[in-house]
Design a protein that fits this description.
Number of strands: 31
CATH architecture of the largest domain: 3-Layer(aba) Sandwich
CATH superfamily of the largest domain: Succinyl-CoA synthetase domains
Distance between the termini: 29 Å
Structural class: alpha/beta
Largest sheet: 7 strands, antiparallel
Number of domains: 3
Number of helices: 24
């Protein structure tokens, strides 16, 4: 790219902040982009005659444009004339442009009038968090009106470019359209690849536009306009320093813990945290530290850290913010590796707090102490029986790593995980992330063999580029599920190009997640719903769903939900209809969804389920209403016993027990079939009670039974699995 470098360096050395259209397209042409042919005419005496001569060489109709360093948007300035049919019109157009541009006019461009019904737009801008971002979308007058645009982070892979093109809503415009050929997608990709390469090679380019990109009748796109904005490197800001991941791991496997700020008052942080740790019989040494000394919870209290004999791995600190700095020397003396800083009153309260936080982190870094927080609700690691959080929730050891930038969200999710038997690999309330950031956690999860699913609640990222790159790597090994707080707030950008003006913080973040394989959700419970299935079921090989239901209405609703979330509900093959005819009464639905019509034979749902899983026309099965029937029957039995004193209570109890046993047997049977056929099976319970769970675990079975309380949650969760599998498959091609 030597020639390109010379063009850019020459422009920068002369103080130019942009490249005229002709220079921009010269760069594009060097990269193999399809660019319109044109002639450039310098401003001055003889301009009209030169333009007329160029017009005769190129042929009519023509396009005439006025150029100038200070003229960024020629159309808005009235400096573009299209459809010029002859010499008189061309001369008039030259006069008009000279009058409008006045002293800013530097040259004219004469171009052939490119014919085509379809226009697209492509471009690049540099995002402060994620770096160079490539844009592609519907062009022309509809660019801003319809907003049919896609963003991806550079550098672009072949899969990224395919995804950008396939993600446009106006897919019909890419195929054969009104007598014109289908768009040459490889030529479109050459434009996107060129923008990506330029952005990565030359950080001095801050924005680019290829607008419009007109598709000719034979399907070949051609760039008829271009803009390149120059400036400094938008990504030169200081990035957070990386941390020692071994030290982070040690914070979740401490052999000794000191609670600095321990309290005898229930409800205070200094009481809640050690209480939770003691209550779960943590196997390491635990020390309580408070200047008053004495005893708390019947245990000795040390007045200072320095009084403790031996080293301390983790210090859990709850003292006021202005006293934390003084603890650093004592921590260094006791070889403390990590400080879990619960205390608030730092960056989140304003400038004074920010300065205090920065000073503390610098001092801790110099002492070799890793700081988690401040302003965090704590951490837990069920695999080490270590619970040091404000939540009285103790989920089982599992494979879901959970990080929340909100304490309340963390409390809710931990409690739900415990209630629904969803295992947790480890949890952290990341707080202000003064030292340990979400990007550090991502890199730790990438290496951690016990982590099979990563679940994040985010409100911001410190280093978007690093987050994107680490998430892209993690997603190739294990799914990443994200709920982004504040996703509806659109961050406006001051931009010189159309590309930059159409971007927003939310759009770029969402695009980065899509590109990195992250599954984004809209509700908190969806985080753990997805973690449940990713840790319990095989991935589907496609998006085809068989539905089995105890009643037609649920089947209709579930079918609609599948369509809304990109899942296909295919028609049953003649072969499977024939097989189901041998199981079900004549009046069954004879199509997908399969309504098993409430027959009393307990073997029918099992047999039908296996037939559906055998069918090579589906990739997953959702079954509704078979599980949870016992809740309804329990209520019915209670009513009968109250209404009829002559009812045999023993018989009623046996019936209740039999139904309970059926549900247990059915759940286990479905789980066995999941392993036998390698397809995910998601259940929806008819009703739920205090005994109902999301996951049902069975010894010696690879997978688990999965049941949700509503069709919506089952369908959305399966759609997330399909999205992840689709992303994986495209990256393996």
């Amino acid at each position: 790219m030597t020639d390109i470098g010379q063009i850019i360096n020459t422009a920068l050395s002369t103080g130019k902040s942009s490249l005229n259209e002709d220079r921009a397209k010269e760069i594009f042409r060097h990269l193999g982009m399809p660019v319109v042919a044109e002639e450039k005419i310098g401003a001055g005496t003889g301009m009209t005659d030169a333009a007329l001569a160029a017009g005769e060489r190129i042929g009519w109709p023509l396009v005439l444009k006025g150029l100038g360093e200070k003229i960024l948007h020629k159309t808005e300035a009235g400096l573009v004339h299209v459809g010029i049919g002859g010499p008189e019109d061309l001369a008039a157009a030259v006069d008009d442009i000279r009058a409008r541009a006045a002293d800013e006019l530097e040259a004219l461009l004469v171009q052939p009038m490119v014919k085509g019904r379809r226009e697209f737009v492509a471009g690049m801008f540099r995002d402060a968090q994620f770096g160079p971002v490539i844009m592609f979308g519907l062009g022309g007058i509809f660019t801003e009106a319809l907003g049919d645009i896609v963003f991806r982070i550079a550098p672009l892979s072949n899969a990224d470019m395919d995804d950008m093109i396939d993600s446009l809503k106006a897919q019909k415009l890419l195929g054969a359209f009104r007598g014109e050929a289908a768009v040459d997608k490889e030529a479109l990709k050459s434009v996107l690849k060129g923008l990506s390469d330029l952005a990565c090679e030359f950080p001095a380019i801050t924005e680019m536009d290829v607008n419009p990109l007109i598709v000719q009748p034979d399907g070949r796109p051609v760039a008829v306009d271009g803009l390149v904005i120059l400036g400094g490197d938008a990504n030169s800001k200081e990035r957070p320093a990386s941390i020692d991941l071994k030290a982070l791991n040690a914070c979740f496997y401490p052999e000794s813990i000191a609670f600095v700020g321990a309290s005898a008052s229930p409800g205070k942080w200094g009481h809640m945290l050690p209480t939770n740790t003691f209550a779960r019989e943590f196997g390491g040494k635990v020390y309580l530290v408070n200047p008053k000394g004495g005893k708390i919870m019947g245990r000795k209290v040390y007045k200072r850290l320095s009084e403790i004999k031996g080293n301390v791995d983790l210090a859990v600190v709850t003292v006021p913010a202005d006293r934390v700095m003084d603890l650093i020397p004592e921590m260094a003396e006791k070889n403390v590796r990590g400080m879990l800083l619960i205390t608030s009153g730092f960056r989140e309260v304003g400038e004074e707090g920010r300065q205090l936080e920065d000073a503390l982190i610098e001092k801790a870094r110099q002492a070799g102490i890793l700081v988690l927080g401040p302003n965090t609700m704590g951490v837990c690691n069920p695999h080490a029986n270590f619970y040091s959080t404000a939540a009285n929730a103790y989920p089982l050891p599992g494979s879901t790593a959970l990080v929340c930038q909100s304490g309340n969200m963390g409390t809710q999710l931990l409690a739900f995980a415990e209630q629904q038997d969803i295992g947790i690999r480890a949890f952290s309330g990341s707080g202000n992330e003064a030292m340990v950031t979400i990007e550090d956690y991502m890199e730790a999860f990438e290496r951690d063999e016990l982590t099979r699913t990563v679940v994040l609640y985010l409100e911001s990222v410190k280093d978007g580029r690093r987050f994107f790159e680490s998430a892209s790597r993690v997603s190739k090994k294990k799914p990443v599920v994200v709920l982004k707080g504040g996703r509806t707030e659109m961050g406006e950008k001051a931009a010189s190009s159309h590309t930059g003006a159409m971007a927003s913080d939310a759009k770029v973040f969402n695009s980065a997640c899509t590109q990195a394989g992250i599954i984004q959700v809209e509700q908190p419970m969806e985080l753990l719903d997805l973690s449940a299935v990713f840790s319990s079921l095989p991935l589907p090989k496609g998006n085809r769903v068989a539905i089995m239901t105890l009643g037609g209405g649920w089947g209709v609703v579930t079918t609609d939900l599948c369509a809304e979330h990109g899942l296909e509900v295919p028609q049953l093959s003649e072969e499977i209809v024939h097989r189901l005819n041998g199981i079900l009464p004549a009046y069954w639905s004879h199509d997908n969804p399969v309504d098993i019509v409430g027959e009393g034979d307990p073997n029918i749902p099992k047999t039908c389920m296996e037939e559906l899983l055998k069918w090579d026309g589906c990739d997953a099965v959702i079954h509704l209403g078979i599980h949870g029937k016992r809740v309804l029957v329990n209520s019915m039995i209670e009513s009968i016993l109250k209404a009829d004193p002559d009812t045999d209570k023993a018989s009623a109890g046996l019936y209740r027990d039999a139904l309970f046993q059926f549900e247990e047997d059915y759940s286990r049977f479905v789980t066995e079939l999941t392993g036998k056929y390698g397809k995910p099976v998601l259940g929806v319970s008819l009703l739920t009670d205090e005994l109902s769970r999301t996951l049902y675990r069975y010894e010696n079975l690879e997978y688990k039974g999965v049941f949700f309380p509503s069709p919506e949650r089952a369908v959305k969760t399966l759609a997330g699995m399909v999205q992840y599998q689709d992303w994986l498959s495209k990256r393996k091609e």
